[in-house]
């Protein structure tokens, strides 16, 4: 069955062609994956510490193999799960004598590793969804794994079995060119009247690990899931060493289907010792698919996330990876703060002067497209919920920028009441509406030709599941590639009004910090180029906002984000509060709606008292007041004094 192969590096075997990654594999999904992996690792490590005994304890078992024990390894291939035919020379695949238990310096490369590569010829039964098992036997030197031999000893032998063929649903092509019906994928088309078959798959790499551990385990105190691997001897009370079949680093996308076109398969084996820490990590990851089934996660989404996580570990510098974990937690905090300040800004906003209302409408459309796209691509539940919440927030803003009225007397078709939408008066009466209309008119000259061109390109050169998926994919790809154009109306309004005091800077700052974190993920983790372009254009737009904030000075006569101007607060006894309200640098959490109302009421009363006092002075000293009011020098001095007091 097997041909003698030369020693070669593990990983040289052929791999199945990887399918195209979906463009919706984005940072939120990867962030969720990293946090989930850390949770599983922490859980297994905690369970291990709870069961491990540091010193000699009554009722605990020892490892039956001593440290530096000389061992022999024998590996067999069989189509039966229970192997007993040790006389079958064709079944013997690999022998490695005189290994040293716990040695990390032996082997050809002096790192404790031994590797073996060969090509195996499989039977027709295996080619037709049959099973193929690998049986590894580790014995103390001088003993035989064959129970019929006189050199066999039960306490000197440990074995492990691994099913090499993996069974999964047959992959089918879901996309094709809508014009020609052709596809570049080498997969069969799905048949509507037949269910998908379960077929066998093959991966050429497997690692045989011998756990280097001599912990004194109590018989009933080994924590799960390690208790399924640590086997105790009933007579001595000691336990057998763990021979672990490790395929963790095998990517799901590298598995190749087995059929009549694959009579010969490559196989790369490696033997190496394994520490208890890494064993815990592997066990925690092996438990993840079971947890995902309890959470109703799709197998395909789980495999893709696992592959992405493994590639991150393999291809990323450890220090950079550690920094990525830290900023992942910061991303969650900043996302919550941005959400909080965005809600607070629109909840307390009384004037729409300087804000692009049409951008709010575009935000609703964008959020709807993203939500429909991730649903169409069977994205995991957490990402879908996140997109749905984003859509609800954008829709919640609509009553803040529109007057929505329901006419129950005038109905469509005599059943549905008519709903009318009108702009807020603060938006219509200010120059903002004119600049907003002008910006979107210029925007349409650029956006619509680009959308049409991208749609033609997508239709001619890309594959889609159907016309509905084509429309969603075209809109989503356009948003990622040219989405920055949709943010330019606010920049245009800022330019025309020569002010940025009306913008929610706290919320924008938190979102900008998240954008910088997205940049780290986009270039550390393997992601589509469209997503990386999207992160870059967000950075450019934010820096333009910062430039506008620098070149446009603070106008004390313009309303800030709380609807209060510096001129209204110039008469307050506390100049610091006035300056804070004007510049927007006061604590947003401390300044609430009631405080703003009190300030406005106090300001109105102060202005009214001043007006009454001025009226009395006008009656008594008309000439003096007229002379004072018409003196430009004194008027300029008074204005400079007010501004100086506010700045202090």
List the helices and strands and how they pair.
Elements: H1 27-51, E1 60-61, E2 70-78, E3 92-100, E4 114-121, H2 124-127, E5 133-140, E6 157-163, E7 166-169, E8 198-202, E9 205-211, E10 217-218, E11 243-246, E12 256-257, E13 264-274, H3 276-294, H4 299-315, H5 318-348, H6 357-376, H7 381-396, H8 398-401, E14 402-412, E15 416-423, H9 425-428, H10 432-461, H11 467-482, H12 488-497, H13 505-524, H14 529-551, H15 575-583, H16 593-620, H17 622-629, H18 632-647
Keywords:
648 residues; alpha+beta; 4-stranded antiparallel beta sheet; 4-stranded mixed beta sheet; elongated; disordered N terminus; disordered C terminus
Can you describe this structure?
The termini are far apart. This protein has 18 helices and 15 strands. It has a four-stranded antiparallel beta sheet with strand order 3-2-5-6, with no helix packed on it. Helix 1 crosses helix 4 and helix 10 (432-461) packs across helix 11. The chain has helices at 27-51, 124-127, 276-294, 299-315, 318-348, 357-376, 381-396, 398-401, 425-428, 432-461, 467-482, 488-497, 505-524, 529-551, 575-583, 593-620, 622-629, 632-647; strands at residues 60-61, 70-78, 92-100, 114-121, 133-140, 157-163, 166-169, 198-202, 205-211, 217-218, 243-246, 256-257, 264-274, 402-412, 416-423. It is of the alpha+beta class and 648 residues long. Mean pLDDT is 74; it is low at 1-28, 51-57, 581-600, 613-637 and 643-648. Strand 14 (402-412) and strand 15 form a beta hairpin.
């Amino acid at each position: 069955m097997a041909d003698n192969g030369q020693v070669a590096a593990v990983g040289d075997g052929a791999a199945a062609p990887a399918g195209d990654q979906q463009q919706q594999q984005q940072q939120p999904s990867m962030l969720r994956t990293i946090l989930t992996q850390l949770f599983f690792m922490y859980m297994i490590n905690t369970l291990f510490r709870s069961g491990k005994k540091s010193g000699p304890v009554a009722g605990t078992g020892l490892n039956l193999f001593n440290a530096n024990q000389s061992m022999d390894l024998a590996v067999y291939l069989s189509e039966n799960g229970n192997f007993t035919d040790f006389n079958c020379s064709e079944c013997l695949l690999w022998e490695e004598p005189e290994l040293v238990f716990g040695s990390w310096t032996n082997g050809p490369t002096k790192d404790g590793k031994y590797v073996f590569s060969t090509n195996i010829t499989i039977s027709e039964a295996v080619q037709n969804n049959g099973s193929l098992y690998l049986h590894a036997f580790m014995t103390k030197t001088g003993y035989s794994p064959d129970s019929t031999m006189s050199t066999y000893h039960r306490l000197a032998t440990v074995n492990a079995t691994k099913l090499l063929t993996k069974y999964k649903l047959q992959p089918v092509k879901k996309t094709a060119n809508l014009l020609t019906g052709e596809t570049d994928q080498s997969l069969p088309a799905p048949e509507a009247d037949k269910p998908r078959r379960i077929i066998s798959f093959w991966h050429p790499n497997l690692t045989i690990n011998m756990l280097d551990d001599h912990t004194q385990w109590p018989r009933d105190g080994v924590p799960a899931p390690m208790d399924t691997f640590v086997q105790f001897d009933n007579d001595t009370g000691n336990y057998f060493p763990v021979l672990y079949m490790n395929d963790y680093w095998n990517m799901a996308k590298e598995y190749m289907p087995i059929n009549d076109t694959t009579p010969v398969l490559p196989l790369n084996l490696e033997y190496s010792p394994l520490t208890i820490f890494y064993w815990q990590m592997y066990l925690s990851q092996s438990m993840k698919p079971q947890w995902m089934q309890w959470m109703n996660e799709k197998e395909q989404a789980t495999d893709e996330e696992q592959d992405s996580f493994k590639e991150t570990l393999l291809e990323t510098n450890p220090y950079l990876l550690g920094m990525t974990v830290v900023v992942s937690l910061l991303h969650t905090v900043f996302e919550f703060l941005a959400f909080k300040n965005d809600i607070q800004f629109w909840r307390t906003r009384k004037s729409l002067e300087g804000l692009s209302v049409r951008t709010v409408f575009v935000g609703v459309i964008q959020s709807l497209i993203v939500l429909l796209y991730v649903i169409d691509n069977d994205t995991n539940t957490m990402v879908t919920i996140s997109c749905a919440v984003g859509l609800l927030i954008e829709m919640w803003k609509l009553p803040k920028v529109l007057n929505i009225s329901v006419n129950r007397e005038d109905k469509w078709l005599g059943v549905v009441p008519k709903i009318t939408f009108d702009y807020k008066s603060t938006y219509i009466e200010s120059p903002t509406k004119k600049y907003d209309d002008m910006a979107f008119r210029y925007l349409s000259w650029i956006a619509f030709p680009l959308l049409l061109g991208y749609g033609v390109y997508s239709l001619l050169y890309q594959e889609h599941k159907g016309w509905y998926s084509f429309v969603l994919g075209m809109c989503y790809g356009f948003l990622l590639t040219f989405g920055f154009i949709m943010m330019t109306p606010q920049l245009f309004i800022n330019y025309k009004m020569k002010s940025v005091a009306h913008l929610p800077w706290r919320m924008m700052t938190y979102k900008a910090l998240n954008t910088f974190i997205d940049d780290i993920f986009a270039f550390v983790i393997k992601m589509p180029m469209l997503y990386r372009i999207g992160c870059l254009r967000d950075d450019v737009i934010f820096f333009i906002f910062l430039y506008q904030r620098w070149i446009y000075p603070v106008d004390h006569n313009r309303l800030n984000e709380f609807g209060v101007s510096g001129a209204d607060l110039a008469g307050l006894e506390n100049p610091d509060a006035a300056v804070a309200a004007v510049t927007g640098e006061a604590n947003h959490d401390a300044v609430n709606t009631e405080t703003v109302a009190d300030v406005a009421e106090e300001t109105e009363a102060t202005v009214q008292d001043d007006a009454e006092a001025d009226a009395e002075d006008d009656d008594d000293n008309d000439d003096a007041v007229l002379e004072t009011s018409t003196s430009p020098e004194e008027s300029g001095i008074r204005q400079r004094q007010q501004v100086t007091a506010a700045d202090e």
